[in-house]
Amino acid sequence: MSEIELHPWRFRVARMSDAQILNELISASVRELSRADYTDAQMDGAIGSALGLDTQLIADETYFVVVCEDAAVPGGIVGCGGWSYRRTLCCGDDAPGRDASRLDAAREAAKIRAIYVHPSFARRGLGRAILHFVEAEAVRAGFHMLEMGATVTGAPLYAREGYCEIERMEVPLKNGAALPVIRMTKTIMAE
Fold first, then answer.
1. How confident is the chain (191 residues) per 10-residue block, as mean pLDDT?
2. Is 80 helix (H, G, I), strand (E, B) or coil?
3. I need a labelling partner for 38 at 20 to 30 A (CA). Which of 3, 57, 149, 155 fits?
4. What are the structural domains of the chain?
């Protein structure tokens, strides 16, 4: 998959040249949309690490951007998200404990990763559209079990879309704070 259009949005594979825009989008999304769920210290410590870009997903071509040509945002990028066939559950490039080993699609869950929406495009169904898109991509690659490390902010959407909470975790942050993350899973039946 390289590009698909879902009016008024167009999904395409993320490129390394998108990294700066994506980091800015992630920061804006977290700061505006997660304000009720996380403290300033948690957001400060998480942006760029626990809540940051994982360029391995871009290299694997399993991370996507959503472009709206008419949007008054950098590059027209209004959202992003992906999935992974690697073991790392969540977090960006700078997070400790990353595991890039490959998963077995027959018996392990693909990781749904880093779904963010620009604050100006929140509450329009874009997060749900990204989720459905990346789920379909993971299924197309042979996975039927999905897993994620959800933010407290995103968990209600994922629960509505069939994900079940498995556990609550605390991701330690460099500034001494900890970020609550919810491990969630979902199985998609083969057609």
1. 59 96 96 97 94 95 90 80 96 83 96 96 92 97 97 97 97 94 92 61
2. strand
3. 57
4. 3-187 (3.40.630.30)
